[in-house]
Design a protein that fits this description.
The structure is a homodimer of 127-residue chains. With 127 residues, the first copy, chain A, is an alpha+beta fold. In chain A, 24% of the residues lie in helices and 44% in strands. The first copy, chain A, has a single domain, classed as S-adenosylmethionine decarboxylase, CATH 3.60.90. The longest helix of chain A has 14 residues. The interface between A and B is large, with 40 and 40 residues.
Amino acid sequence: MDTFARHLLVELHGCNRALLNDRESMAHLLRRAALAAGARPVAEVFHPYAPQGVTGVLIIEESHLSVHTWPEYGYAALDFYTCGDCEPERAAREMAAALGADRVELVLVHRGVRDSTSSIHVADVER
Amino acid sequence: MDTFARHLLVELHGCNRALLNDRESMAHLLRRAALAAGARPVAEVFHPYAPQGVTGVLIIEESHLSVHTWPEYGYAALDFYTCGDCEPERAAREMAAALGADRVELVLVHRGVRDSTSSIHVADVER
């Protein structure tokens, strides 16, 4: 399939709640996940919420990774949007392991599909 | 449906190529799109690519918006991830109009679905 980008949507359940609520830890883990995938970070922004939760985004040469956390539910949503040769699934596995997730769901979406009348394909689901 | 967040995936085709390649314009348009949706921006990061293209992310109180552009194809991918009361479709319409898109696709994904064994639902497609 000829596409501009692959976009991996990741659902992480049963995560370590203290990590999910710590901005520095989440920044460290997101950078590490990016490197595990073979991506090259170029900029980042992280924001803590009151009373809890963190949002973080890493811009990479290959597009971006983002994470949103709900410590009160042990839940995090990870997105990895890439137009490059990196391996988003590796970032998902790295993050899941680091956070101690007990349930992981992955959905791969193809974005900017060029050989079709529809530009967006939900391609693969692992549950 | 009881979910943590709604995630709107937007494909914009036939856009103004000069705008897609201008970091300041894209930053301005993304902020405007966020406000049109009723979101509250709190931080941002934008990155231009060589030889062309821009990535930008706006962190909002309700989560994030991101945009990736391919000026050479007149294409942009917009994402609006929200756990709040804002209206992501308004941001998509605002951005599509500002960029002069001649084809728009929207896919709404529910993230962190709590009343189901599956946490992620691709709910609605407009093409």
